[in-house]
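DM from R.C. (forwarded with permission)

"hey, sorry to bug you on a friday — could you get me a structure for this? deadline for the figure draft is monday and I only need the backbone to look sensible"
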Amino acid sequence: MNVDYDIHGVLSLRLIDPTPSLARLVARQLDPWRPGPLASEPDVSISRLQTTPARGSHYRLGDAGDSQECEFSDSEFILRRGGTAISMPFASVGSGCLIGWSGGSGMRKLMIDYVRPALQISLLPKDRLALHSAAVAYEGKGILLAGWAESGKTEAMLGFLQAGAAFVSDKWTIVDGDGSTIRHFPTPITVRNWMIDLIPGLQDRLKGMELLRARAAGLATSVLRVEALSGAPLTTEAKGLAELAGRVSVTPSQLLGTNTDGGSQWQATPSAPLECLFLLVTSGEDRIAVREADVPEVASRLADCAAYERRAFFGLYQRFRYAYPGRRNRLIEEAREAESRTLAKALESKRVFVVEAPFPFDPSALYRAIQPFC
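My reply, with the result:
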């Protein structure tokens, strides 16, 4: 039996006769979306890899220092890593691709490294892009909190939620090319242990290993909480402890709660009208500074950021190109430039700022610094 997911009517994923473990993994990765009928053919499908013998000549690409090996024939290109095999049809990404997999492990890597980028690149022909950002709706206005990994996107989002904003997305956000709307892109949320008590009801919603991980950083957590809530960015001395404190991955449903568990004090919305973007840049100084930014420069930087986040996907595509010199996917090859153009167009009439801040920082301190610009 197939399991289908429709995301805003703009993206779709199909699981073809999935194993229970794959179905559970995808349900967590796509939370809060639930399976439902599709209005058209899926952008990406996942099926179990058939182990039929390859026809014709069969070749191998060895480990290039990345612990990966590939096999290819005239009809199939397969990545092998450990006990996992992934068939990646790069030529059809963006036009309905069928990804095959086998093996009892590596399913999370399959989703993050290959399925997610394939879905995101499928947005480009629809005049949309997936931006590496968190997003909130503040006083009805959609605000993008973008930046490099570990720049504080999630913390900034939590600061806005504490101030009454509604959650839209974390890590990735769908941006319409005409600049009208930002939308939730499903992905779990990584929350640092020292912030768990700042989120209403979250600790009660963590279970099993998640809760054990949350308690593992107890001493560092208590110290950091005092520093974090002192009303200023964390001091240099606290930063070392921050690096020791662990993190826990939660779904949006765990973050916000559900009607059955009483929920939290925070709200969520699947989309919002785009108003402004803040690019978070990590500074070595204990202060937060906000300044206006150049739209083309910000769009270019964030396109580079997205490309780096998809480096496993693009790296495997380079192997594919080596294996099949005559087979190319222009959509993949031009994705970085297309995303930069699309984002610049979406932002051309919007307010865009650069925020220089230390990391980690007090979420409420960042909110106070940038709220006047919203």
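R.C.: lifesaver. DSSP finds 13 helices and 20 strands in the chain.
me: no worries. The chain has two domains: 3-122, 130-289+351-373.
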